[in-house]
Prior knowledge:
- The chain is mainly alpha-helical.
- It has a single domain, classed as Sodium/glucose cotransporter (Up-down Bundle).
- It has 23 helices and 2 strands.
- The protein has helices spanning about 5-30, 35-40, 45-60, 60-75, 75-110, 115-120, 125-135, 140-155, 160-175, 180-205, 205-210, 215-225, 240-255, 260, 275-290, 295-300, 315-325, 330-370, 380-405, 410-435, 440-470, 475-480, 485-520; strands spanning about 305, 310.
- Strand 1 and strand 2 (about 310) form a beta hairpin.
- Helix 4 (about 60-75) runs antiparallel to helix 5, helix 4 crosses helix 8 (about 140-155) and helix 8 (about 140-155) packs antiparallel against helix 18.
- The longest helix has about 45 residues, at about 330-370.
- The chain starts with a helix and ends with a helix.
Amino acid sequence: MASTEQVIGGWILIAIYAAVILFFVIRGAMRTKNISDYAVGNFNFSPMFVGLSLAAAMTSAATFVINPGLIAAYGLSGVLSFGIVFPIASLVSLIVLTKSFRRHGSNVKALTLASWIGTRYNSKGYALFIAFLSVLLLTFIVLILVAITKVLSQALNISEMWMLFFVVVFVFGYMMFGGANSMVYTNTLQAIIMVIVAILLISSGYPYLKDGLFSFFDKLAAISPELVKPTNPGSPLFRDLFEIIVAQMVVGVAVVCQPHIITKSLLLKKESDVNRYLVSAVIIQALFYSVVFVGLYARLTFPDLTSSGKPLGIDGIIPAYVVKVFSQGWVAISIGLIIVLGLVSAGLSTIEGLIQSLSTTITSDIIKALFGKQITNERKYILINRLVIVGMAVASFLAARSQLIHPNLSVAIFAQNGVYSFFSIAFVPIVFGIFLKTASRKTALTGSLTALVVYFTVYYLFPWLIKTVGISLGFFDRYFAGKVQNPAIAAACAILVSVAVGLAAHYSTKSSNSQIENSSSN
């Protein structure tokens, strides 16, 4: 439990932080006249600011709070997965996909990922399909709400339910008015705070590291030998090298195919800004990914994963670590409060991007697509967008409340199930649309539908067949025999199969067209 000094200092810092956020929101809202302004802004943003905004948006509370908690529980195998394989794959994918995506998106004035896919394949129906599936991203919003609630409730000694209510009202409330014009600046502020906090958190393990890495790993091994092995067969996420390397590499490549990440480049007004944007984003993002190593410090601090005799859930380990390590003396308390602010910033930076991109998708690609003939006044879509955000707030609050009361290992599993299924489905149309210039709508849609079927078959049907019916599926038995399923397995299978099917459809169509052209010429 936080001390009185920590609570008072926490309230003062949070109040100042909220005031600064509202300043940027009001400033941005004054320039937001239509849904396009809300989606991509009308300021000429600095590429470095947009790059920092992207790094902040990619680094959610999962990176700073949830994933380190999983690493605290399962050790070095989690570091290899979340701290090395996934970061390398995602950053390489970001660099490769960004330039081509932005070029096409700027040419057609795309506001969302769904509209990008719709214009690339000349299909309003396809855009509508992707837009409806985007609702799956609400699960990621839920993860962030849970993480922020855990951090603030421990730092301020407030009931989790009341804290969740306050966070939802504040964040969704200001996002009704801010949009892209304010988000780039709030994300930049958050990214700067997160850089400071990342350095503080990584350096907080000095007492454990001062005798060298070998000594550090010996201390972990003394708690459990499994903590220092490259695989952890007893974990639900890091059991073997396929799960740690192959699945995470595929997921890392595909994770960029989320609306709040890949569409960030559309905020740039000039093609010449892209390189500076990517350099700033990649450098800062690499630092943020390194924070997961703090999970090992937390395990040494709580060897039996309990605090004051009470068991720590996965999602509560890092908040408890911060409160305990930075609780003695005003200097330590001040640093601890800054770290709390950084953990909150990590969550807010991503949740802002998700609310902005998802609400824009629902408004522009669903409501406008279905009722555009009845609603001809463009300014009305700003009001509709705000009502959509209210609906998202209610749904997110109820789902987050359920996860706080009845977690299944970690809220990360709930969120990954929604997010991973979405980008598995979106991967083929985005990648084929960028790199296969002649890819048809039929080819892309075949890939999307294949991913949809494979993902939900692997995630829901396979465990039922293995555990309930008693059918052995060989390779998959080890992944689905336990209580918790790893969404990365289903995502990797869905992406690999959908790419194979999509390529087969593309080249068979291309071959058929060539034969028709040859017979016509003869």
